[in-house]
Amino acid sequence: MKQKKSASILKKFLLFNLTVFSILGLFTIIYLEAIQPTLVSDRSSNHKVVINNTKENLERLNIEYTKKGIREFLLSTRFLFQSLDRVQFYDLLGNLIGDTNILDLDQSVFSRSEIIFEEILGENTITPEIEERLEEEQKDEIKDIIINKYDEEIMILTDDEKNNFIVSTLSKIKFQEKDIGYIVVSEQANDIIIAVKERKAFIIRTMIAVAIVILIFSLFLNKYILKPIGLLVKFSDAIKKKSNHNLDMKKVFIRDDEIGKLTLSIDEMTKELQQRTNRAETFSNDLAHEIRNPLASLKSASELLDKTTEKNDSEKLLKIINHDVERIERLITDYSQMLKDEASLSREKMSKINLIDIINSVVEDFKQDLANQNKNIKIIVSDGVKNKEGYFILGIGNRLEQVVANLLDNSISFSQDSQKIEIKIEETSNNLLMTIKDEGPGFSEASPQKIFKRFYSNRPKSFGKHSGLGLNIVKNIVQLHKGTIAASNRLNTKGAQVEVLLPKFS
Question: What's the CA gap between 57 and 154, in Å, rounded?
Answer without folding.
Answer: 19
